[in-house]
Design brief:
By secondary structure, the chain is an alpha+beta fold. 23% of the residues lie in helices and 35% in strands. Strands 1, 2, 3, 4, 5, 6 and 7 form a seven-stranded mixed sheet that branches. The protein is globular and about 45 Å long.
């Protein structure tokens, strides 16, 4: 049975993770994840295997790209069962590139994303603390694109 403390800790890790994205705060980011068994499906469309690869990605992006705007989570759902939990939500983000920098496939206007975070009460070294083991982020359908077979859209569901 999940406790209020479990819920608060997972939501704290979720906030720390998203806050670390504003300016690619590597130390803050690393504090959230389980280590080299961590797996990320990044918004850029590529997988990153472990914190070593994730750190190298952030080192490559720091100073070239920033995420100055991340909305409060929308449609946040957190499910906890024993030592496993998942959190899903949507956000609107705006990415800003340094002068002369291009990142293929990354829109620069604010756009909606969706993400899923998987947590275990295991830090990767068998200590019973909550850490994120998997993160997946991708863009959503366009604001007015009809959802099959219902015909509604993000815009109409507001």
């Amino acid at each position: 049975m999940a406790t209020q403390a479990d819920r608060q800790e997972i939501l704290r890790l979720h906030r720390v993770w998203w806050e670390s994205n504003f300016d690619f705060d590597i130390a803050k980011m690393r504090s959230v994840f389980a280590g080299e068994r961590y797996l990320q499906y990044n918004l850029n469309g590529h997988p990153y295997f472990g914190l070593g690869e994730k750190t190298k990605l952030w080192e490559a992006l720091k100073g070239k790209l920033s995420i100055p705007e991340i909305s409060e989570p929308m449609n946040l759902r957190l499910e906890i069962s024993g030592d496993m939990a998942w959190l899903a939500c949507e956000n609107i983000v705006r990415i800003q590139l340094a002068a002369g920098v291009a990142v293929p496939g990354v829109p620069l206007t604010p756009y909606r994303i969706r993400s899923t975070e998987v947590y275990q009460r295991d830090d990767g070294a068998s200590n019973r603390v909550w850490k994120m083991w998997h993160f997946h982020c991708s863009p959503t359908a366009a604001e007015n694109e009809p959802r099959m077979p219902f015909g509604d859209s993000y815009a109409s569901r507001r």
